[in-house]
Amino acid sequence: MLRAIIGFTSIVGKAHAEFAKSIGRQTLLQALGKLVLNSVGLEWGWVLLVGGALAVIVLAAIAHAGKIYNHT
User: Which of 50, 48, 30 is nearest to 38 (CA)?
Assistant: First the structure.
C-alpha cells in the first residue's frame, strides 16, 4: 500500500512538473488539462485505508498472542 501511495505521488509530481515546463501560451485544451491535473491527488480516504490495514494487522497480532498465552 505504501508503494502504491509513493508511486502515485511520484507520478502526479512528475506530471505537474512536465505540465509546468510545457506551458507557454495556454490553449483551451491545456487549460482543461491543468484543471484535471489539479483535481487529482491523495485525499483523506487514504488515511482510512492505511489506518484500517494497520488496525487489522495489530488486532490479528493481539488475538494470536492471546491464543498462545491461553494455551500454556
Answer: 30
